[in-house]
Amino acid sequence: MNQERPIRPDPASAPTPMMEQFIEIKSANPDSLLFYRMGDFYELFFEDAEVASRALGITLTKRGKHLGQDIPMCGVPVHSADDYLQKLIGLGHRVAVCEQIEDPAEAKKRGAKSVVKRDVVRLVTPGTITEEKLLAPSESNYLMALGRVRGEEDLALAWIDISTGSFLVAGTTRDRLLADIMRIDPRELITAEPVFHDPEFRAVFDVLGRAVTPLPPSLFDSAACAERAGRFYGVSTLDGFGLFSRAELSAIGAAIGYVERTQKAERPPLTPPTRQDGAATLFIDPATRAHLELVKTLSGSRSGTLFEAIDRTLTGGGARLLAERLTSPSTDPDEIGRRLDSVSFFRAERSLGDGVRAALKGTPDMLRALSRLALNRGGPRDLGALRAGMEAAADVAALFEGLALPEETADAVAGLRSLPRSFAEHLGAALADDIPLLKRDGGFVRAGYNAELDEMRGLRDQARRVIAEMEAALISETGIRSLKIRHNNVLGYYIEVTSNHQAIMMGSDSAKARFIHRQTMANAMRFTTTELAGLETKIANAAERALAIELEIFDALVAEAVASAEALRTAAAALATLDVSAALAVLAEEEDYCRPGVDRSLEFRVVCGRHPVVEQALRRQAAEPFVANDCDLSPAEGSKHGAIWLLTGPNMGGKSTFLRQNALIAVMAQMGSHVPAESAHIGIVDRLFSRVGASDDLARGRSTFMVEMVETAAILNQASERSLVILDEIGRGTATFDGLSIAWAAVEYLHEQNLCRAIFATHFHEMTALAEKLPRLSNVTMRVKEWEGDVVFLHEVGKGAADRSYGVQVARLAGLPDAVVARAREVLEQLEQEQVSGKTSRLIDDLPLFSAAVRREEKKPAKNDALTEALTALHPDEMTPREALEAIYRLKVLAGGKP
């Protein structure tokens, strides 16, 4: 019986030990690009290399073979890895950073084929980055977790900014889930795989796209999450932080678990989770947030946003707090009042505000520096940032000595004074003035701070001087003026005297004990001493020992910083608060804003309101000044509910600007800012809805009109009597009468059911008749003036209704050919005379474009009046089957067919 010979693997195709290690580590991190450390480079192999080379625009090479195929490879230098990480993270990739975790010398001891031990020390994801280069100073970088408990309706969101340590949690519902997520604007959202694949949530995750990461459901188990969070904070229960629902515990624990998974052995200094009450913030749905362009334009830019227009902050923490207040305005009049008091205080005390801003200018970001240090990826400059931040805090606090302060300002100053002075003094004494970027370079500890370090630096930097000083001391001690201290590669440092001085060097027991004989030459003798041997060892190891001492000092300072984390966070928050208040005061003074009155009424009265973004844009363009307008949606005398304005007027007349400016004034007032108006009285708005502008959603199969109807439906289903609704041109995306009917019904519903304050802009002039039927509805219009056939847009809002939209005039201004404009005027005149009512068919024959198309078509057969009359005379419900059959034959004959 013949036996088949066993097939032996081809040694040439077997993976090398290094490649075996790479494959093993990569298999444990399949969803991340693996940055595999090899010397001074991070290398990527196989598909990771192909993906990275395309994304980063770097050369793809190869290294050896695997299973008979070339192994694709590319790499990036370690010293510039942050630049490449920034690009990869921006494209939505995740990166596993694999470092050497042992000294290469140890690997050599195990054998020639042994490889240096490596392991993933960190997973870099969009929501867990801390590097200064990868973060925008004025933007938070949130990781968010969505918690849901099976069988329960409640949902919860927990969000962490690992770069600052902030940790918040809030309950939510399916209806407002997307709005709450967009309010926070996380860089990454994690959720359980069953939730990710649940059709109920599909629309939400489609909007968020690659920012969503599905994870195993075990990470979201509420019981396990509670235990995980307790271990993280070193407590047996989270009850001391607040009573959280199961969904909230799921979100909290999942967020912590993901941080632990990505940061490996390092632990960020997170604050305990704090519940945020959704009712305490102004609800702004996603469409409204996009239309108003609060912090991002529709194209994703910050340029042209409300944030850009009002931002006068000087620190990263201040800019982030301003953005947070802008995206989550308060609904608590007392809280808003405290913020406004602080802004008014700085506006009144201009010299004090200037002093605070001078001290804040250039202040580093303490929170992000602290986070990097705690995660073992910080450097000496991060310690320097803490020192500079604490010095700025002390300088700012000193400016308020002896002053009567409003509540928010007083709380902030108290936070500054809570900083541990001993730590600030310690950093000041320990750190040099000029600090290097990397701790491995040394040189960041101040001279005089550590005696041993000073000695090692002296030996390292001034070995010749130290040897010369010892030589002089020995000459003085022995009286041998020819004594020299020399050096060679065999003996190292030695003392050399001529032979005739032998008696001095060896003549007594004490001399023999002091001077140790090393070598006798023909006319000289060489000795050493215990001190010289020790000095030689110190000189040889001085550089290494100096760096080791500095690293020990660095670690001690980091430990002290982490221990002071709570006080540092309090001070950083206080600096941010003062920065925002002083900045808003500067804004109000520069732009001539007023302090709004904000209370729990249903008032909405703005006198001479302006659009904050457009006004500044006009000024930059040296254009005509912005035209201010009043808006009064307050309840009329005898009414319990706010008013609705029906706004008509021409295109280009300023309707959209007027709509948006009133929405933005409400946002600014409730965030605690002065507003662009002469006066403003805003009764708290609980929900803000805006439907302004038109766009389609091709990815989800929605036309412009469908998007408009979906957004309008959301408004009509959610607006309350405290809401402010801004609607522009509802119904314009469909047939005229369809659109008019929808707009008409929507206004009636807002008036009768929602009972809200609203501005409804329309080109359907027929709707102005509603003012006679609906008591809370008033007609207002954008004023225009006609002059010699041209139209002048006054951009003024006044009472009354427009009689037309001046679309043809706007078309001429846009540059349409004169022939088109002239023909349009003719058609418009005929349409207006005939009131459109079904007689437009005659116009088609007069239009050259359409009449030519008609002439090319085949002539249709003449209408058969006898057949039409016979069909009309039939009553199918009253006919027997036989009568019906006979009728069919008759109709066939009338139609010209055979019986």
UniProtKB/TrEMBL annotation:
UniProt key word Chloroplast: no
Matches recorded under InterPro entries: DNA_mismatch_repair_MutS, DNA_mismatch_repair_MutS-lik_N, DNA_mismatch_repair_MutS/MSH, DNA_mismatch_repair_MutS_C, DNA_mismatch_repair_MutS_clamp, DNA_mismatch_repair_MutS_core, DNA_mismatch_repair_MutS_N, DNA_mismatch_repair_MutS_sf
Coiled-coil region: 525-552
Pfam families: MutS_I (PF01624), MutS_II (PF05188), MutS_III (PF05192), MutS_IV (PF05190), MutS_V (PF00488)
Alphabetical keyword list: ATP-binding, Coiled coil, DNA damage, DNA repair, DNA-binding, Nucleotide-binding
Annotated positions binding ATP: 649-656
Cellular component annotations (GO), alphabetically ordered: cytosol
SMART domains: MUTSac, MUTSd
Family membership: Belongs to the DNA mismatch repair MutS family.
Role, per record: This protein is involved in the repair of mismatches in DNA. It is possible that it carries out the mismatch recognition step. This protein has a weak ATPase activity.
Entry-linked PANTHER family: DNA MISMATCH REPAIR PROTEIN MSH1, MITOCHONDRIAL, DNA MISMATCH REPAIR PROTEIN MUTS FAMILY MEMBER
The name this protein goes by in its record: DNA mismatch repair protein MutS
Originating species: Aquibium oceanicum
